[in-house]
Amino acid sequence: MATIRDVSKLANVSVATVSRVINQSGYVNEVTEKAVRQAMETLSYVPSDMARSLAGKKSATIALIVPDILNPFFPELARAVEDAAHQLGYTVILCNSDHDPEKERNYFGMLKNKRIDGIIVASYTIHPQQLLELQRQSIAAVVIDNHFPSHPILALQSKNREGAVMAVRHLLDRGCTTIAHISGPLEILPSRERLLGYELVMREHGMFAPSLIAEGDFHVEGGYRAMQELLKLHPDIDGVFAGNDLMAIGALKALYIAGKAVPQDVKLIGFDGIALATVVPELSTIAQPIAEMGKLATHYLMRQIRNEPVECKTHELDVRLLVRQSTTD
Ligand code: RIB
Question: GO terms for molecular function, please (predicted)?
Answer without folding.
Answer: DNA-binding transcription factor activity; transcription cis-regulatory region binding
